[in-house]
Amino acid sequence: MSPETIGLVGMVILFVLLGLRIPVAFAMFAVGFVGNMILNSPQAAMSQLASDAFSLAASAELVVVPLFILMGNVATETGMSRKLYDAAYAWIGALRGGLASATVFACGGFAALSGSSVASALTIGRVSLSEMDRFNYDNRLSTGVVAAGGTLGILIPPSTGFVIYALLTQESIGRLFLAGVLPGLLLLTMFILTIQIITWLKPEMGPKGPKTTFAEKLRSTTGAAPILLVIVLTIGGIYTGVFSPGEAAAVGAGLVMLFGVLQRQLTFAKFWKAARESVVTTATVMLILISAYMIKTFLALSHIPQALGAYLETLAIPVLGVLAIMLAIYLILGCFLEGFAMMVLSMPIFFPVVQQLGIDPIWFGVLVVLTLEMGLISPPVGLNVFIVKSVAPNVSLGRMFRGVAPFWVAMLITLIILVAFPQISLILPNTMIN
Amino acid sequence: MLSKLNKGADWLIRLSALIGTVGLVVEVAVILVDVIGRFFGSPLRGAQDLTQMGMVIIVFGGMALCDKLNGHVNVDLFEGSMPRWMIRAGDIASTLIGIAIFAGIAWTTWSSISLMRFQLGVVQKTNIIDLQFDWFKGAIIVLCLITVIGMIFKLIAQVFGPATLEETA
Questions:
Q1: How far is B165 from chain A (nearest CA, A)?
Q2: How far is residue A188's CA from residue A196's CA, in Å, rounded to a whole number?
Q3: B101 has a chain A CB within 8 A of its CB
Q4: By the 8 A CB rule, do A37 and B102 touch?
Q5: Contact A149, A121 (CB under 8 A)
Q6: From residue B34, how far is each of A25, A257, B49 by CA, in Å?
Q7: Quick one: CA torsion of A250, A251, A253, A258, rounded to 10 degrees?
Q8: 3-state SS assignment for residue A394
Q9: Nearest CA in chain A to B90
């Protein structure tokens, strides 16, 4: 059998294992390891296992993973999400669709603390859905906005999606984080515009909330000030080169803990819970990465990425056409596969093609992460929609998916804008200091 | 007897998670001390070494608890249309693969220590404060074996647990 055939058989087995609910990391590991044994040698596969397990776990770059997860978990435990929502609510809650817009702002702010879409949707959903219910918001809009707003978690830095992408492609985590800032803000703006259009067409879907006095606005903003300080320090620190991403994560986690203690919101029990959950999440992510390295080697040995690249060259499709095909594949796969799984499975195949075609890898990373976000709200397995369902069990999934549809369209438009104007993604990383 | 062993395995899993969690707290402290120290002109010597090796403890410390909590990502798209026996078979296969993976990591890591230290006489160390890699590779072996023990008990529960009784009944 040729290496290409072995590679294809391996991929088929991989998808069968995934269909049987074998954890993604285990399935990739098994296929990658056995494939390496066949295409290289058992000794080489064993030696790669020992070296990858240790070198990936001891990677200085990966320090960002547990530390940013810890920062988000501590922020959740100390109720910082509530303060973000309160601040946004005070300023724009009285506008038409204002509570929904406040939810998007709170999601964006929380995204800059947590790096996880699921955490953003869950945390902000708990705070905002009851408020929107109280002011008779249509539950399609209220649940849709939480599910969509939550997706900002993996685009706005810190983002675990970017960390995984960086490790799979050997790109700089700091540059990717910065590349996500402006697209994240653009997406946030698109969500707000979507809410405005929806409530302009059907005002009853998002009535105005209560008016607040200037003193209340000021008080709520002061309450959210520590969070804004953490965000500015971490992202600003990376941009100015004062901190490496790992140091920024530690400083952010330290500050969030400090504010939690000062505000008497962080007990030892809460801190311990947050730290323990961070360790477990880190283990999940790291095992996926170790497995991704196994399958990456297997695919490289099978020559499938090279064959795919050569095939695409013979088709004489322009680079943008190839990019569009890849993104379309991601959009389709996103309907069926979990985001991380999709990225680690596809990157060993797609990334060599991206390099071959001279596509900027940082820009490509932003586009891929955005398509992963779209997968989070696409039926039938839109994870964020299921997360919102757990917070709003009385709303049917059908209504939720209908509610999220306009936001999916807004994301598609954002994707097109980002494809048309790569500078939006690249200006910050290209001007970053150090 | 089995329940006592199970409790013992749970204790080991909790211990492993405790080690990982303490590792994370130490990691945060080391980086903060280094950053603050750097601001005052005296960064922590060997902070990078400690951070890197600390990551090994964090990553593998959480593996056993992660598996116990079923924290690994899987695709459950077809779960609704799968017969119960197939779901169970998938669960058992997952645990078996998991045991093979972690036993494999432990074994290959041991082989690497044995090759470098005992056959070639090379002691690999970090660059600045000479932390020996073998200590941390040893930690990987121990933490992987704890994960394997936890998985073996999970496997026993999957094979002989209530689901089997229900099905045969």
A1: 23
A2: 13
A3: yes
A4: no
A5: yes
A6: 34, 18, 12
A7: 140
A8: coil
A9: A20
Q: What one-character-per-residue DSSP string does A114-142 give?
A: H--HHHHHHHHHHHHHHHHHHTT--HHHH
What DSSP line would sit under A160-208, residue for residue?
A: HHHHHHHHHHT--HHHHHHHHHHHHHHHHHHHHHHHHHHHHH-GGGS--
Start-to-end CA distance of chain B, whole Å, equals 25
CB contacts of B108 in chain A (<8 Å) are: 46-47, 49-50, 53
The Cα diameter of chain B in Å comes to: 72
Which residues of B fall within a CB distance of 8 Å from A59? Answer: 52, 55
What are B12-42's pLDDT values in tens digits? 999 999 999 999 999 999 999 999 999 899 9
| 3-state DSSP percent of chain A in helix, strand and coil, to 5 | 80, 0, 20
Structure token digits, residue A366: 């932003």
pLDDT in tens, A163-197: 889 988 989 999 999 999 999 999 999 999 999 99
State the amino acid at position A347 in one-letter form: M
- Chain B, residues 43-72, CB within 8 A of chain A, namely 48, 51-53, 55-56, 58-63, 65-66, 69, 71-72
How many H helices and E strands in chain B?
Answer: 6, 0
Quote the pTM value. 0.85
ipTM value for the complex: 0.90
**Mean of pLDDT values over A220-227:** 89
Q: Which residues of A touch B112 (CB under 8 A)?
A: 47, 50-51, 54
Q: Within its chain, how far is the Cα of A11 from the centroid?
A: 25
Rounded-to-integer distance, Cα A79 and Cα A86, Å: 11
